[in-house]
Every structure is written in C-alpha cells, then in structure tokens.
Please model this.
Amino acid sequence: MSGLVAKLKSGIVDPGAAIKRMVVISKIKVLVTHPFTGCRLLRMKVLYTTALSTCGVDGTHLFVNPDYFSKTLDKPKRKGVLWHEGAHVWMMHHLRRGDRDPHFYNLAGDGVINYHAIKEGFELPENHISFASLRAQGYDLPLKDGEYTTDSLYDALIAQGKNPGDQPGKNDGGDDGDDGKTGDQPGETGDDGDDGEDSDDGDTGETGDGEGADTGETSGGEDNQGEDPFEDVGGTGIVIDAEDDDGESLKGTELAQAQRELAGEIFNDAQNAKSRGKLPGSIAEYVDSLRDAVIDWREKLARFFNRGSDFRSDPNRIDKKAARRGLFLSRRVKEGTGTVVVGVDTSASVSQREYKVLMAELKAICTEAGAQEVVVLYADTSIRHVDIFEDPSEIEERDLGRYGGGGTDFQPVFDYVYENEVEVDTLVYLTDLECRLPEEPDYPVLWVSTTDAVASWGETIKLDSTG
Model:
C-alpha cells in the first residue's frame, strides 16, 4: 500500500494496557449516552500510531496517538474527541470529499461536527474549529450556525478566495459560545469515571466493519502539495479518504457500494438509538436527508417492488394465459409482483428523456422481479394510449408527443384500473405531481416525481435522469 493508511500503519506502537483501557472506557461512555455514534466507534478497529499527532478515522480504523490521548486530553475531552471522530464517519466525510480541497473540506467538516458536539454537551480541545473561530479568521458566514452543512460551509469558505496555505483556524480557537462545554445534556455530566476501571485489559474494543475515508481533514497527500497530510489544526482528530487495497481512494462503483453499505448501517443504528430514546433530533434529520442523498432513485424503485422468490397460487385470480386456451386455473403469482400498472403523465411536464430513463429501469426491474403483467397507461386529462405486456422484457418505449400534451389529471389512470378490474399489485406513476391527487386506493402507489414535489399519500421518489 502506498496511501495514507499505510503511512499511519507504519507508525503503529503498543501503548500498553492502561492506555488501551482509556480508549475502551471512553468508547463505552459514548455508546451509553450516544449509542448512534457509539456504534460507529465500536465497528472500527483501534490502531495506536505515532505517525499522527492526534486521532484519525478512515471508516474502518480508529487511529490514536497514545501520548495525545492519555496526556493531552482529560477524561471529558477524550469522550468528545471520540464522538467527533465517529461523527466524521456517519457524516460520510471519508467517502464524500471527491476532488474538493482537503484542507477546506476538513475545516468545514470540523466546524459542523463541533457545532453539534457542543450542543450535545461534549467538551473539546480548546483550539477546536468552530464557526466563531472561522469568523475570527475573516470568513463571512451569514447563515445561522445550525443551518450549515459540510458542503455548504465548504462552498462558503472556498468561495472567499482563501489560500489553502493560510491554514485558517489556527487562531484563538474560539468556540460556539460555551468554551467547548455545555453540561446541560441529560446523562452527559459526571459519567467519565476512572480510566482504570471497568475495562477490558488490553482490549481495543473494535470490529472492523464500516467504510474508510477522508473527508477533508487529511485526504490524498498529493492534494496537499507537500503539506503534512496529518496536520490537525483544531486538535480534535482527522479523517482520511477511504482507500482500496492498493492505497488508492475509492472511486466509481467501489465508492458507491461503500456509501450504500454504510448508509444501511447508519439507518439501522439510528433506528436502534431512536428506540432507546437517544437519537437527537438534529441527527434524525441528518439521517433522513442522507437517505435521500445516498440511496439512488433506482434502488428506491427496486425496493418498492417486493421481490419474493417464491410463487403461490391465488384461487381468487384466473390465469389469463390458460383461460385463453379454455383452461380455468388459479393464477401463479410471484410474491409481491403480479400486475404492475405504470401511469405516464403525457402533459408537457414530463420530458422524453425522463420517460425513457424510467421505462428502461422499470423494464429491468419488472423482468427481474418476474412481473406477471405490465400495463402502461399514457394519460393527460384522459387515457390516450394503453400498452399491455405479458412479458416485461418486451416493454417498448413510445413517442410521448403522440399521446396528449394537454393538462394533467391523475383520476383517469385510477378509473381505468377500477373500470377494467385490473388486479393491480403495484402502480407507478411518472409525473411532476402538479395536480390534485385522487382518493388513495387500496394498492401500493409509487409516485416518481420529476420535481421536488412530494405526494400526500403513497410513496414518492425523485427521478434523476442525469445518470
């Protein structure tokens, strides 16, 4: 390996049982009070190294400088720094930097994470990056602190023409108003105990699960043009881009796969923390936004279809193919996917490109899911054309310009299903949702929206036809 992880591993040391206990106890304390982030920490293998001055994460490993952790940090700050490092991972900073400047992306990530850390009652090193310290360096940040995301803060910093060599944030270490501490969070005060008790002698307390990565605190040494890639301006730990086995940052399908896998873990961790009443509202909002940002619309579409692998006989349904031959047999239905109805809004609100992208995906999904029948209804204020495919692999695209182009009315598609007694299992409707919805039917409906609009019933996904 030739990447940053290899450099960190080159400095691995055995710190001794006492320091290992400190780390284990601090991780457990985070887990008890903040299980969502604590789960992230437990999934990372701890490696003790002198190759960096503080701590770091790559999604798979938690790197710890033993002297920094044991001598520089007191008990409350150990807990705060570990929470900070875990937050880098669940914010996916190690997977999301891309080609953005690592120094400024790190500043942005630190600023957002530390804002939430202070709100949650954690103590941080005095020089930690905060919105106050960034403003003290001359950055104009007009939004309220809580309104910034890592990406929007990065854009604000980089747009102001600062030179990465200026290293903003090395100043007074001003914080967000509480000198790094607010002890008003239930369960946050008085829980740091003795570092030598209730620990696993020499246990690092980790399992290697999760995705590695750099979010900007230290990523790609080549991006830093000779600067120390492990420099930690705020003293709260760094983050490193996720790497493959050759030490290269993840890209393409590997990166997308890592994001999807981590997102699944994050959603599960959030649900577990929520069930215990220990998922802060701000983090719950983040998880919801992450679900939309990370899970590709195609994956959402596929998940909407129940892909049961077994067939069952439905005595209430007749096998139409057999009936044409004079045989009245019960219909064999693949669990969850029988008849799929596709409504296509042919008013001017849906483009030919959007339509083609959706139909191509539906064709693949319905074929894989073994849909028994696909009924495609083209409609504006009335049904303009109907296609019925008993073999979804034969689905053909149409020229939308031939069907309608007038106003929008959703009711005709649902009327067609009712009047023709279509035994619909799933209805997918491609539209901009700029019309009043009809009454909700008793079968699942997925609205594939070409805009940001969300239907008041059923499920809604936003179609991205750009890729």
About this structure: The chain has two domains: 4-295, 302-462. The longest helix spans residues 252-275.
